[in-house]
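Exercise 7. Given the components listed, write out the predicted structure of the assembled complex. Treat all entries as one system.
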Amino acid sequence: MVAALALEDITVTFVSQDGARYTAIKETTLDVAPGEFVSVVGPTGCGKSTLLNVAVGLLQPSAGRIRVFGEPLAGLNRKAGYLFQTEALMPWRTALQNVTAGLEFRKTDASQAVRQAESWLQRVGLAGFGARYPHQLSGGMRKRVALAQTLILDPEIILMDEPFSALDIQTRQLMENELLELWSANRKSVVFITHDLEEAISLSDRVVVLSAGPESHPIGEYQIDLPRPRDVAEIRLTPRFIELHTLIWRAMKEEVLKSYAQQQRQ
Amino acid sequence: MRSSSGSKAALRFWQVAMFVAFLAFWHVATSPTLLPPLYFDNPHKAAFFFGEPLKVLARTWEWFSSGTIYPHLWVTLLETLLAFVIGTVLGLGMGLWLALSPLAAALLDPYIKALNSMPRVILAPIFAVWFGLDIASKVALGVTLVFFIVFFNVYQGVREVSYTVLANARILGASDRQLLRHVYVPSAMSWVFASLHNSVGLAFVGAVVGEYLGSSRGVGYLILQAEGTFDINAVFAGILVLTVFALLLDWAVSLAERRLLVWQPRGGETEKI
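Answer.
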């Protein structure tokens, strides 16, 4: 089977204005199958977001290839949707107008776009909030709008860059459950970036651990054989979850300490 | 609640009281009969230099009741509006162009800085020669004042578009033209609106200064005429009309702003349930 997204030997080196080189990612290979939910975890500053920016085509890798359903990627990845860590909604558009934006850019009929957007707002639990502007919504609601904005285009690959890291723990678990529900209704490939190992295990089919930066690369891959459907709050208490968590944490711990020591030195 | 509305009423009262006290002082100090001349040797000199408030008000009333002021006000208003609209459109266009084309921006940078630091009121006589003494020369002066405010705000607005919002719109499929229309322009417009009070005010300044330096109509012309005949009361009446007019313009801008920038958070905004 052809991978939905294949990153092959990706190396990303940044050159700053004073000529200093920083290799964020080195020789990283990552395949994501159609319909698979993969989480990438790693200590802060290990280049997780860089990897995602390469996958969506916002950043050109210094070396390596990207294939999307077998085709080499040129320019932006048209098959991918991207959920940002920070605020990405257009503040001058209402929630509904933000959700219709992608359809509007694709010149879809306006009344049909509005109908679809309303149904998506309902699906993310925001029916009746369409006329609000982003500043009139809470952080969790804004994330839901962003989710609807991305999913309305029905992307084959969904890239998520720590989308829930700014939310409080209760909202976060609610959003995680909703995400799983939406995903299982229409299984697409997901790459989910997070620094939270529990979040990664409870959501994913597979967890990839990245080493501490610079020259970050995968140091382990773990299949998560927990049964679905899952409730992210409850599954954390099962013995198999704790087993997996212990196993992966052992591999991650050293990298986290390395990353911490590096930050101390700076 | 009560104390805040009470203190607001008290504040209004004192504001009005200050104004009345100022008028009373002005009246008493300039009236030839109420006080013996303290500083001037002639009791009529104070009125000659500073005018008399009652006569200023009477003159203003006369202008409006006889209707002589309206053609002048209309001309000044027309000049202000034209200068504002043309200056804003030019500033918006140039600002977008230079912000999105770094090469052009780098090339033109020293010239824009030079033009902006030049005291542009000095161009008024040149414009009078180029465009004549009719409204075109006043509009041109206003445009040079408005243009730079709008231009710098648009330039800044485009460069401060959030990287995430831009990247998100591109991933959602926006073409370059759609990015311009749906991201750059709305973002720049919020900066233009932030400068609206300034630019409308300067369009007005351009119109009045232009009229004052040479014209046959307009409120600035009225003031110039009155000065020529040492009619200080008419000068003050002209200033009064201009001030009230400027306040009205500013109020209109506030209304427009509130309608057009509904998407921006206002400080301490809460929802009434």
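Discussion: The radius of gyration of chain A is 19 Å. The first strand of chain A starts at residue 5 and ends at 15.
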